[in-house]
Design brief:
The protein is α+β, with helices and mostly antiparallel strands. It has one domain: Porin (Beta Barrel), CATH 2.40.160. It is 20% helix and 48% strand. It is built from two helices and eight strands, in the order ααββββββββ. β7 and β8 form a beta hairpin. The chain starts with a helix and ends with a strand.
Length: 151
């Protein structure tokens, strides 16, 4: 148990030295993201792990689908999360988005993280107006994302 914990801690420290470079790409995407309605645009809020109680700030840029390279229902969600106010990281996940009759968008997708970080994460959520609500789950964690649109 102690060895596994030390290994995870060591890998986490290595990642924290590498992940800041991911922040530059996210900041660029954040600055360029237009203010829109629907799914696309900038979102800000928080994440909460039900498994550990950990939480932090969360931002997301949702890009419009590129009809040349993706299905029109596939959107790239570019997330940037903080942990303990000093650690942060960014990652991209492709989610399938469907517009419901009532104007709500539902989405789902998955993203592969390293095994020590939980492996395959599954996401599902809704966007209604300026509110973004989602759940995530992996082999090691599950929790929620709650965000508001940035205008």
């Amino acid at each position: 148990m102690k060895r596994a914990l030390l290994l995870r801690l060591a890998l986490g420290l290595i990642l924290t030295s590498i992940l800041p470079s991911c922040g530059f790409a996210f900041r660029s995407a954040w600055k360029k993201a237009p203010v829109t309605s629907g799914v696309e645009g900038k979102w800000v809020g928080s994440w909460l792990s039900e498994a550990s109680g950990h939480h932090g700030e969360l931002r997301c840029v949702v890009a419009a689908p590129d009809p040349k390279t993706t299905k029109t229902t596939s959107h790239e969600f570019f997330y940037h999360a903080t942990w303990k106010k000093i650690l942060s990281g960014s990652y991209k996940a492709v989610h399938t988005v469907k517009n419901q009759k009532d104007g709500t968008y539902v989405f789902k997708g998955e993203h592969k993280m390293p095994d020590w970080a939980g492996g395959l994460y599954h996401y599902q959520g809704t966007i209604k107006g300026d509110n973004f609500s989602a759940c995530y789950e992996s082999a090691m964690d599950k929790g929620t994302y709650t965000m508001k649109r940035v205008r």
